[in-house]
Each structure stands twice: as C-alpha cells, then as structure tokens.
C-alpha cells in the first residue's frame, strides 16, 4: 500500500533539519574533544581544535581494559537482543491471538518490571548471580537485561501481530500447517519489520544500561560504560580519552539503526499497540 | 469528521488457556530476574539489619519513618515536578518533530539515524557529554549562554541553572524516542485517509487533529508510559552531571534512595523506600495505561 505523507507545511523541513542540527551539537563537541590533546581541552576554550591528534583513539585500541570491555558490551548486548526476541515471540503471539486466564494482569505485570528502582534491587542481584555462577559472565548480563527488554519486546511484537488478520492462521491450519511450522514458515516472514524494530530497541536499552551491568560483573564481562566511570574517578580526568571512548560507544548503535531504518520507516503500529 | 481509530477486535480472540504454554518462557525468565530480588527487598523493609545473621523484625516502622521524612517528601515533589515538565516538553515536541520529518527519498535514512543517535549513547556518557558541554569555561553550551545573551550561567553553583541543565539534557536525550515512535505511527496511516482530507479541503491543522493524532494514540501510550517511568526514576545522568546538587536542587528520589542504600547502608529504610517508590510508579502507570487505552473507544 502506498504510504502517504499527508499535507506538509512549507517550513516543516526547515524546522526538522534545524532541530537535527541542534541535536548534533553536543555530540560534535564530544567528537572535537576526542581529537584534541587533554591539556588543550582544559587549557582554554576554543571552537576549533588548535592541534589535532588521534592518540586518544590509539590509546583506546591498544589498552586491553578499554577495547575488551567494548567487546564485552557488544557480546552481551547482542546475546540479550536474540534471547529476548526468542522468548518474546511465542508470548506475543499468545497475547495477540488468545484469551486466557489472567492475560491482562500478566501483561501489566510484565511491564511493571521496568519500574523497579535499581539502587536497592541491585544488592540481591549481586548475591543471586554470584550464587548461581552467572556473576561476571556475558550470559549473566544478557539474562539480567531481559528484565526490562522482554516486556518491551512482547509489547512491540504484540502490537504488530495484532495487525495481522487472524484469517491467515486459520487458512494455514486448514492447509495442514501445524502451529510451529506455520509460525516459522509463514508468520515470521510476515513480521520481519517487527523483528527488526524489536531487535533495535532491545539492543539500544541493553547497550545504554549501566547500573545492573556494572553490579554483576567485575573483569571478564565488564561493560564499556563501567570502564568509563573508572576514568572519571581517577585523579585528574582524561577528558580526551573519555570523549574518544564516548564517540566509539555511539558507533555500534548507529550501525544497528542503519540496518533497521527501513523497518522503522515502514510503520510500527500496523494494528493496535 | 469523526475519529478514525481502529477498533481492536479483542472479543474475537479465542479463549484458550493452553496459551499459557506460549507465555511460560517469558514468565520464567522475568521471574528469575524480578521476583527473587523483590522478595529480598520486602525482607529488608520489615527488618532492622545489623549483620546478615543479626536482624530484628520491625513491622511497618520503616514505612512510617520514610513517609514522614521531610527530605523524602521534598525529593518526591521535586521528582514529580521533573516528570511533569519532561512529559509536557517531550511529548508535544516529539510529535511535532515526527510530523516535520521527511518521509521520502534518501534523506529519510539520514534523518532517522541522526534523530536516533542520542538514544544509543550509554547513560553515563550522556551525563559526561553534558557535564562538559554545559561548563561555562570549556564547554560550548555553557560558554555560549555566558557570552551570547550574557547571562551568568553556572550549573555547579546555581540551583536553577542545574535544574535547567538536567531538564535540557533529558529533552535532548529522550525527545528522539517520542519522535521515532510517533513517526512510525504516522507512517502506518493509510493513504485514503489523506485523500479524504484533501477532498474535504481540510487544513493542515485539521488533518493533524482529526486524522494523525487519533491514529497516534497507541504509540503515544507507549511513549508517555516509558517517559514517565524513566524520568521518574532518572538516576545516572543527573548523578554524573550534578550529583544531586547544588544543595538538594537536583536530588531526585532515586539519588536520595541510593544515598540511603549504598552511602549509609540503611537497608531497612531503603527497602521500604524502594517498595513505596515502586508501588507509586506502578499505580500511576496503571492509571495512565487505563485512561489512555480506554479513551476513544
């Protein structure tokens, strides 16, 4: 179906690009800091760097504390996105297709898990993950982040699935498809865009989370964001290195959104959400 | 013109309790990460913990002292005010942005990536960016405010400036989420609706009010709920930028809570505090959820 734009106001585009430009200013400022030596940043204010250096990036990629925690974040974030998607798919299908005892309450209960204030909940987290042997593992962080990503994934997927007519399920059943086979062969390809959008949001929320990830890791699965806080607390902040790390933390997300951009553009709410 | 929201066909769903098998993986995975910690916190909240083996049951004592604590009360009002400002600024701005976004051609991809960028930055990095960007001496933002309008701006000393810095940071950080959700919602409106509006010679405003806005109800429900919960529990970004100061100016509930829990290690009061906090967010979300999903049906 052709998607239409609606009537556009003549200045709409200008307003949008002005906003987008404003949005970029703090990020550009961080980028400019990342290509200056640290003494210059603290020395004086200047719009354009007097000396340009890529040493900060070189430091990042040569010190294992930095690049390995960067890889840790990528590993557990990807793992979390896939795991959240896999458990959320059947559940979202159930919510969109069937009525069952306690369905509404369950749906709301799932959402409430996003609302737990972390400060106190972190203590038992630490104890539990140590107890079951998931402390400081990528799998551990991926499971912990399912707390807030699974409900979101169910919510997004359910919205898309409800937009797909139930007649399709019935026709497939008449044609002799079993539920699992129908789900994999027919239904999943139909909700490709929903899967793209869900993966993006799971990746995003797991990538930016710090408190839980930091609590249940020490070395082997330590996230990049935690490595960055260590630099802050050290005597004399290395702003330049911090800025370089900051710029690099934007890269994976930017790549992911580039891949799912068409899915987001295609529309999210094919049915109700 | 009547509203054109699509009616959910919930009544057509088949009743089948075996669907529980399909939701079981979700329940198990969430229960592991949610229920056990919650029970532990409940345990904290009714006991006075000296050491792990030496504790006494105190009933609702902590709940009473927390609700009477003036510091908690003022942090509560402050956080509520912050969330209200966040919603009032970000929701209209996000929708306006989505309406203005390009919808055809190569620029769509560029626009989407640019708008989404702030969302993909780890929260403490967002704090770090603004911590330096808003500084009057070496940050572009603070420097510009100090020099162009000539206002004396210093977020480490002035409480209003600190509040504005945190608020602007949140708007910068999270309006894109509202914009992306609203944009996706707008894209799902079928062409004939707009043709009908064109035939009626509807103004751009009328088209927005009667066609686009009603169709956005679903995504805006998500946006309002997510923005409410996350702004009401904001921690990492203000902690990095202001640390709750100057004085108590940006000491939100979560910052106060972690001061009690981690700083003073008062697990009993902190547990009671967490539960009340959790309960309040849940109740308010339930109210939002009910009002937003029922209205317009």
TrEMBL record, chain A:
**Which InterPro entries does the entry mention?**
BP-dep_ABC_trans_perm, MetI-like, MetI-like_sf
Please provide the record's keywords in A-Z order: Cell membrane, Membrane, Transmembrane, Transmembrane helix, Transport
Source organism, top-level taxon: Bacteria
Q: GO CC terms for this protein?
A: plasma membrane
Q: Where in the cell is it found?
A: Cell membrane
CDD domains for this protein: TM_PBP2
- Please tell me where this protein is predominantly located: membrane
Q: Which Gene3D superfamilies match?
A: MetI-like (1.10.3720.10)
Residue ranges of the TM segments: 12-32, 74-95, 107-129, 141-161, 182-208, 239-260
Q: Which GO terms describe its biological process?
A: transmembrane transport
User: How does the protein associate with the membrane?
Assistant: Multi-pass membrane protein
Q: Give the family from UniProt.
A: Belongs to the binding-protein-dependent transport system permease family.
For this entry, the protein name equals ABC transporter permease subunit
